[in-house]
Amino acid sequence: MIFTSFLLLLAVPALAQDIVYDAAHNVTAITGTWSSGSKNVITGSGFATPSQESFTYPATTGMSYSFSADGYYEIARYRMTSNGSVPTCITGVMNWAHGTYVLESNGSIVMTPFGDGYQQIQDPCAAISNFIENYNYTELYVLWNIYQDPVNGYTLQLYQFDGSPLPPQYLISTSPNMLPTQALRNVSSTTTAATVQNAAVVNANGGERRWGAASLTGLLTVISGFGLASLLL
């Protein structure tokens, strides 16, 4: 059922106007390495070491996406989530994944992982305060565009499956800073390519909420109205 919904999703462009990937949509190509905020989080060997399931912690939180011209991507994310009830219970998440991506004609991006992604979750108030788990989920971004920021230059704006924007990312390098584009560690479980969702969201109690098939209904609604949403790009 999930896979069928995913195929229907890709068929939605028949109901709306397809995107033209030209200078009006993107002032430069998506290929290269992008980073948000203070630009301390950058993909590549300075962030994750998959063979050891370890991370090198950046000075500040943020995210970084890299795209190659031949269809490969890598994601590095470092996030902190505060707890309003217990201010000292701050949850930190380091997240890394890579794989292949497709720019769909409806303006979305589908990212399919190799199956060796992982993340580290630290919560001093949880029963297990520090653990590493696999992270292998196909991610969908319903809209994206690149514009020129007067201060930071070329800026990539990605919109998650529900239409909410990610923090803007700024072009660090036109050459993608990525680890080798192949599986880099052995994992026991297989990737569920039919599950379409964005990054894990960590709740204040340290639990993890993942976006599942139920979200596809709203997703189809978002994309079916793409003709209106494209006016924002």
How does this model look, in words?
This protein has 233 residues and is mainly beta. The protein is 10% helix and 38% strand. The protein is built from 3 helices and 15 strands. The chain has helices spanning 2-11, 216-224, 226-229, and strands at 32-36, 48-49, 54-55, 62-67, 72-81, 91-103, 109-113, 118-122, 130-134, 137-149, 153-160, 169-173, 192-196, 201-202, 208-209. A hairpin with a 3-residue loop joins strand 10 and strand 11 (153-160). Helix 1 (2-11) packs parallel to helix 2 (216-224). The radius of gyration is 18 Å and the shape is globular. The two termini are 32 Å apart. Mean pLDDT is 79; it is low at 1-15 and 190-233.
Features:
233 residues; mainly beta; eight-stranded antiparallel beta barrel; two-stranded antiparallel ribbon; 3 helices; globular; disordered N terminus; disordered C terminus
Topology:
Elements: H1 2-11, E1 32-36, E2 48-49, E3 54-55, E4 62-67, E5 72-81, E6 91-103, E7 109-113, E8 118-122, E9 130-134, E10 137-149, E11 153-160, E12 169-173, E13 192-196, E14 201-202, E15 208-209, H2 216-224, H3 226-229
Parallel strand pairs: 10-13
Antiparallel strand pairs: 1-4, 1-12, 2-3, 4-5, 5-6, 6-7, 6-8, 7-10, 8-9, 10-11, 11-12, 14-15
Helix pairs in contact: 1-2
